[in-house]
Amino acid sequence: MTQQFVQGDVMFIKRISPIRKSNMLTGEAFPSLPATDGKHIIQRGEKTGHMHVADATAPDLFKFSTGRVAVVKQPTWITHDEHEPLQLEEGEYDVVIQTQYVPREMPRMVFD
Fold first, then answer.
1. Which residue ranges in the chain fall short of pLDDT 50?
2. What is this structure's pTM?
């Protein structure tokens, strides 16, 4: 069963099979942005400016044509001003920014 962790508009889906090392080399590194208090920004809210941030044990982020992947090497807390904190255990996670679907309209990003 796939594990999903949701915090506002960001969803982390634990990968059942890890990314092959050769694919990781072809993926574009997607560095987190350091915040002033030593945390690392995973996603910045477009509407409110609030941020989803990882603690000092920031995961490695990779961007592929199919999406983003976070490689968590040790338990990491993800926090946000408006949501409960969540802890990601060691592993690889697809990072999905949720979209809103309205029939007969183009899908649009959910803004947090």
1. none
2. 0.74
